[in-house]
From TrEMBL:
Residues 20-254 form the AB hydrolase-1 domain. It comes from Cohnella phaseoli. PANTHER family: ESTERASE-RELATED. One of its GO terms (molecular function) is hydrolase activity. Belongs to the AB hydrolase superfamily. This is Sigma-B regulation protein RsbQ. It comes from the Bacteria. Keywords: Hydrolase.
Length: 267
């Protein structure tokens, strides 16, 4: 069982510290997205990185539509990894949808986590006006999903520079495009639907683990209003606006990302 989960999720463990920090990637990505940030924590922490089933170098044969058709399947991955590694009071750093996956896991097993750190996360991407602004109308999401089905490579090429929002870093935009397009289209499409149609708002009040919300400037996926909403509805949360623009500050602005996480943990 231990070996299968390690292989299933392509676990990578580094670092020298007694406390554990877990880095969880977002949709369309894998653990390599943390390569600029995670090493900065190796002196003080045991650093854990992994790939969700269907992403990166995970065991894609373990993918099941019934399990991964909701956040609970991805949260179960996190809980099984935590059990295998015997984690307690771990720090969970989740980018984008992984912020909500970590929150889901923490509701199930709060003793496993001491802190949740959410980077560009959103409990609901769809607008629910006038009370909630998530950034997308349903027609926007349907259009993206349709593009994925009709022209998967074109979807990746279109989306990467928009979400990165850093025209000077064409290399990172190309990397993100490659990451998107390297996914298996069927799995990526279901993960996208699971992500963009989630509604985690009612569960936010059940999260008891203290959290840090890193809110990027000009983030087309999780706008400022979303960060404000999370802060207002997550108990014991801290909101830190970032100078970094776009949705991938751990790629485009790793120094600022690292500094804000370290400052929060030190406090």
């Amino acid at each position: 069982m231990t070996t299968s989960i390690r292989d299933r999720n392509n676990l990578k463990i580094t670092g020298e510290g007694e406390r554990t920090i877990v880095f969880a990637h977002g949709f369309g990505c894998d653990q390599t997205m943390w390569r600029y940030v995670a090493p900065q924590f190796e002196r003080d922490y045991r650093v854990v990185m992994f790939d969700y089933v269907g992403s990166g170098r995970s065991d894609h044969s373990a993918y099941r539509e019934d399990r991964y058709g909701s956040l609970s399947g991805y949260a179960q991955d996190v809980l099984e990894i935590a059990e295998v590694l015997k984690l307690r009071d771990a720090i969970f750093v989740g980018h984008s949808v992984s912020g909500m996956i970590g929150a889901f896991a923490s509701i199930e097993r709060p003793e496993l986590f001491s802190r949740l750190i959410m980077i560009g996360s959103s409990p609901r991407y769809l607008n629910d006006l006038p009370d909630y602004y998530g950034g997308f109308d349903e027609s926007d999401i349907r259009g993206l999903l349709g593009m994925m089905e009709m022209n998967f490579m074109g979807w990746a090429n279109y989306l990467a520079p928009i979400v990165l929002n850093n025209p000077k870093r064409g290399d990172l935009s190309n990397e993100l495009e490659h990451s998107f397009s390297s996914s298996e289209p069927k799995i990526a499409r279901q993960f996208a639907e699971t992500t963009f149609f989630l509604d985690f708002r009612e569960q936010l009040g059940r999260v008891t683990v203290p959290s840090l919300i890193l809110q990027c400037a000009e983030d087309s996926i999780a706008p400022k209003e979303v960060g404000d909403y999370l802060h207002a509805h997550l108990n014991n949360s801290t909101l830190s606006p970032m100078q970094a623009k776009g949705h991938y500050p751990h790629l485009s602005h790793p120094e600022e990302t690292t500094r804000l996480i370290q400052a929060y943990l030190a406090s």
